[in-house]
Amino acid sequence: MPAALFATLLAALLPLLAATVLTAPAAAARENARDLAGGSAREKAVPTATLTEVTGFGTNPSNLRMYLYVPESVTPNPAVVVAVHWCTGSGPDMYNGTEYDTLADQYGFIVLYPSVTRGSKCFDVSSPQALRRGGGSDPVGIKSMIDWVTRTYDADTGRVFATGISSGAMMTNVLLGDYPDVFAAGAAFSGVPFACFATTDGSEWNSDCSGGTVTHTPKEWGDLVRNAYPGYGGPRPRMQIWHGTEDDVLRYPNFGEQIKQWTNVQGVSQTPAAADAPQSGWTRTRYGSTGGQAPVEAIILQGVGHNLYAHGMASRVLTFFGLDKAGPAPQPQPGACKVTAAVNAWNTGLTASVTITNTGTTTVNGWKLGFTLPAGQTVTGGWGATYTPSSGSVTAANVSYNGTIAPGASVSVGYQAAHGGNSAAPAAFTLNGTACATG
Q1: C-alpha to C-alpha distance for 9 and 15, rounded to whole angstroms
Q2: Strands 337-345 and 437-438: what pairing?
Q3: Which of 97, 157, 320, 415 falls 20 to 30 Å from 423 in CA-CA distance?
Q4: pLDDT tens for residues 60-109?
Q5: Any idea which residues carry the catalytic annotation?
Q6: What is the DSSP letter of 321?
Q7: Distance CA 238, CA 240 (A)
Q8: pTM score > 0.70 for this model?
Q9: Counting beta carbons within 10 angstroms of the beta carbon of residue 38, is it exposed (0 to 12), middle (13 to 18) or buried (19 or more)?
């Protein structure tokens, strides 16, 4: 090639090469920035219709675990329900012990189950860190979980809800106080007011609060909530409160103190706008309005102790949240059930045959049978159901061909287990959270 022609070509190519070197990284950087801002990059979605653990979800100062249930019928921009377990429980226990997953199948929302790893398996509702927005501990980890879900599924940030039982009910109060801009409403079963359990000595337990002797004026209770997020002037989450009059763990006076707190936070009268008895032994009062989504709704269960949650209550929670398309009409109550179990054992193993009978008057559509294996037993196989986990508190869930049990009808299932000497059958069973007769 003549030298003059080579020089001419090189002079023409140099600007193009320089432009490529300079603009390609810049373009890639802009694309990465768009991805990080929530453009095309998303965390990997979890499998549908099964409880799945998610790791690496974000800031997690107290080492919580995150479990997620996404229904096959998940809606675009879905709502998110955060379901918070009790002391000694776990996220999988909350999944197995409540029916939010089956309701998610029906209505298309996502259920998030936080899970404690500290020894007590109780949520931190007492430390100064937990009782202020962004302070650390469990609320920050739960907020990170919610952020992961909203990024991954384009969830509706205006329809995030919390519900919990016992320690989870206390955490529901804490979450709504710390993050009023995140939650639209909450439902607390057997809980205490925000900051009632506050301690400064590192203790997880506050006997004065659990005993029902901590009282404040409505304004004092309301100020405790408002001080968790100073300067916030936006809307506050609605609250639904459930309590049994014979609660001997978190005493019944905590019910009234929660009403005082959340009516003050909502700026509504402590005088009920409506009162009724949706079920025998129940008294329901609504504050601030008379409808199914009142600012505050409170349900007393007469003669009921601490463990008041029962199948059917989650449907009422959804009505309060506004996620139940059926509206505020009373939901059908669970029917009765009976379970018989027979064991055939040998030296180190056994098989158990279990028969579930629907003794109620309505058809069971989709079932989960809960029971506790005797110590030393481990499920090694089964038929007619899926069994998780393999020991301890086990849930047997229906398979595709036997999910419906008509009134008076029965379903037979079974499992094989190894044992260390105790070959007894389980002594108690629940069907979809309702205790069954045995024999």
Answers
A1: 11
A2: parallel
A3: 97
A4: 999 999 999 999 999 999 999 999 999 999 999 999 999 999 999 999 99
A5: 166
A6: H
A7: 7
A8: no
A9: exposed
